Amino acid sequence: MALQLFIERGFDETTVDDIAHAAGIGRRTLFRYFPSKNDLPWGDFEAGLQDMRTFLAALPEDLPLVDALFAAIVDFNRFPAEEIPYHRKRMELLLNVPALVAHSTLRYAAWREVIADFAAARLGVEADALEPRSIGWIFLGVSLSAYEQWLQREDADLVPLLESALAVLRTMFDAGPDAGPGSGPAAGAGPAAGPGSGVR
Amino acid sequence: MALQLFIERGFDETTVDDIAHAAGIGRRTLFRYFPSKNDLPWGDFEAGLQDMRTFLAALPEDLPLVDALFAAIVDFNRFPAEEIPYHRKRMELLLNVPALVAHSTLRYAAWREVIADFAAARLGVEADALEPRSIGWIFLGVSLSAYEQWLQREDADLVPLLESALAVLRTMFDAGPDAGPGSGPAAGAGPAAGPGSGVR
DNA sequence: ACAGTAATGGCACTCAGTGCCGTTGGGAAG
DNA sequence: CTTCCCAACGGCACTGAGTGCCATTACTGT
Questions:
Q1: What whole-number distance in Å separates Cα of residue B3 and Cα of residue B158?
Q2: Which of A113, A166, A175, B60 could make a disulfide contact with A179, Cβ separation 3.0–4.6 Å?
Q3: DSSP secondary-structure letter at A189?
Q4: Would you say the C-alpha torsion B142, B148, B149, B153 has a positive or negative sign?
Q5: CA at A11, C1' at D25: how many angstroms apart?
Q6: Which residue has its C-alpha nearest to nucleotide D9's C1'?
Q7: C chain positions with any atom within 7 Å of a protein CB
């Protein structure tokens, strides 16, 4: 796998030729399966997005939008225990290698679109309207800042971090217009909050 | 200016040689001033960030964090009227050309860091903690979704759109845990809100 | 005018990505 | 078993971004 090479040698230090050679295929063939070197660490992302769409569509209508979206991102980021170390390495690359950080944006755009489409339908507005688009960005931010923390601690679980990240939002805006986040309890208590606690 | 060529011919259709030649300098020299072709539309972003740091530092201590950050992003995105058409073209490229969308992420990371550093100081936590990082993402999302709308309408002003985008957050989380954003007044009324109205 | 230094830009190289096209391999039909 | 056909394969050559090296040029102060 190309991942292995990236992890061992570094992304920039591994050429496409190296990967093709290691995979026992021609360089030209590799580019027929992956549109760019940057896409190699991503695997089949579109499949994950399709799962997320399906998951969202299956949620009860009366589940509040924020909760629905939160449930979806939790589900989206669920992995079998044995894949987690691998997933960690993958995310480490994606969030730290500049070329991949940049390229990932394009994937995130598709991800945000799934969120935005769902939010738009719920809100009864166009998919390219301000609210659904903003919501897409917000949940992407929640996910990525949680991932960032997750990578910082070998023993961390992602779900509580996602909850904490969402809790930051609640603390910032929930306490009413007079209280900045400086006032209320900081969301830093997050990881201490039990699973589900932040999800109303 | 390289911008002019990108606007006329398209980003991908303009080679670095074209630009260097048009600028009357050698290709090698161009790469000494700009680390990559992708950086050309950005100009001196770091200077803008420095201004934002200064602006934030000068704000009164008792201004709530959200309001402080909002004021900063409004200030950051203020341009002289005569530069606005140019700025529009620039942002159109940055938000629509895939290579630039991807690359811009690296600039946004630095931008988010300014936000996060300020938030961290205010909250009394580490700059790489969950809350400030999340806050950085949130305000980036607010900015970019506002820009996206701005580009959709030739006659739009950015500031009301920024206010509306922030209002989306307020409506999602301000109304208490029982009300999804579906309940309250949609932030779509945003552009109608007068300047300053959303900034408590 | 001149020495010293910084900026310039030509040259050649690496690597990603692409178009073209000949080769191969594995059925399906005879 | 042979032949035909189609799709996958992969070599080759090309473009374009980005970089190291180094000779040349332009500018500085003396």
A1: 22
A2: A175
A3: G
A4: positive
A5: 39
A6: A29
A7: 7-11, 14-20
